[in-house]
Amino acid sequence: MYRDPEAASPGAPTRDVLLVSAIITVSLSFTVILCGLCHWCQRKLGTRYKSSLETVGTPDSGRGRSEKKAIKLPAGGKAVTTAPVPSQTPHDESDRRTEPRSSVSDLVNSLTSEMLMLSPGSEEDEAHEGCSRENLGRIQFSVGYNFQESTLTVKIMKAQELPAKDFSGTSDPFVKIYLLPDKKHKLETKVKRKNLNPHWNETFLFEGFPYEKVVQRVLYLQVLDYDRFSRNDPIGEVSIPLNKVDLTQMQTFWKDLKPCSDGSGSRGELLLSLCYNPSANSIIVNIIKARNLKAMDIGGTSDPYVKVWLMYKDKRVEKKKTVTMKRNLNPIFNESFAFDIPTEKLRETTIVITVMDKDKLSRNDVIGKIYLSWKSGPGEVKHWKDMIARPRQPVAQWHQLKA
Questions:
Q1: Are 305 and 266 in contact (CB under 8 A)?
Q2: pLDDT tens for residues 194-210?
Q3: What are the start and end residues of every segment in region (Disordered) (predicted)?
Q4: Which one of 54, 171, 229, 277 has the fewest CB atoms closer than 10 angstroms to its CB?
C-alpha cells in the first residue's frame, strides 16, 4: 500500500512543528548567552563606576600675612617721610585582612589618605587662584631718583575700589613701603579711617642711596586694613623692579593690587630634629629654634610658640606645645616631645607643626605650618625618610614655614 511521505504518522511531530521547535530552541540559547554577557558587562561597569565614585567622592581636607622689612641703607643714609603734599571614616581592620593588598579598596584608601593630607602648597595655590579673580582695587604712586642728592623718592597718592575688610562694610587702609630684598627698614602711610577710596598724598625719601644699588631693588607696596586689637588684614600688594623704571624723572603708575603673599616670600624657618625608635615605637620631636619669623604684632615683632600635633589618618591624636618667647623673631626653644607611634601606623601618620603668635586680647595668629609625613612636600618627605633610615639617631633639618 502506498504511503504518502508527506503524511505524518500517528504520534509523530510534523515538519512544521519540528521547524518551530528548532527556531524556539535557537532563540532561547541566544537569549541565555546575551543575558550572561549583559550580566558580566553590568558587573564590570558597576565595579568601575563604584571605584570612580569612591575616588571622586573622597572628602578633601580644609585648612585654615603682614609685616615685611624694607631697605637697609648705607652708612649715613636714612629713610625719611615728609609731610603730606596737598571624614573620611577608617576602614575596619577585618576588611583589611580579608582583602588582597592590590584590591580596589586599598587603592581608594591610599588615594583618600593622600587627599586628606595634602601638602599646604597645593591648597595655597588654589586659594590664590580664587583670590586672583577677586577685584582688590588699584593704587596710584610715583617714583623717581635725585642723582645730586642720591635720594630715591616714593610718593603714595591714592587707591580706588578697595574691598571691605571690616564688619561695617568698609576698611581702614594704609600702605607699607619696602625696597626688597632688604628688609631692615620699612615706611608706612597714615591710616585712612573707613575709606575704600583713600587719598594719602604722602612722600617718602630714601636718602644717601647710591643709584647702582637702587636699580638692584624692587619697590614693594602692601596695602593693609588697620585693626586695633588684632593683626592687620592684608588687602593687596604691588611690586615693581626699579631697573625697569626711568628714574631720571618722577614716573606715575596705576597698578592693580594682587593677592598678598609675604613680601619676602617667607614666613620664616624652623629647625627641628626627628628621632625614631622602632623598638620603643616612638618618635621624639625636638623643636630647636626659628629664624626670620614674620612680625605679626603692630610693634613689628611676635610672641612665638610652637604647637605639635600627632595625627593618624585625618584624626588628631595628641598635642604638645612649647613655651612662649616674648617679642622674638629668632627664638631658641630646645624642647623635646615624645609620641607613641607603632611601626605599622607610620604610613598613615602625620606630624603637624604650627608656629603661633601669642596674643592676649585676641585669638592667637598662625605664623606658619610644617606637615611631616612620607607624602608631604619634597623637603618634609626627605626629613621623614632620613628619620626612618637612621633609627635612634636625631636627624635635624631646617624647614620653610608655609601658610
A1: no
A2: 999 999 999 999 988 89
A3: 52-106
A4: 229
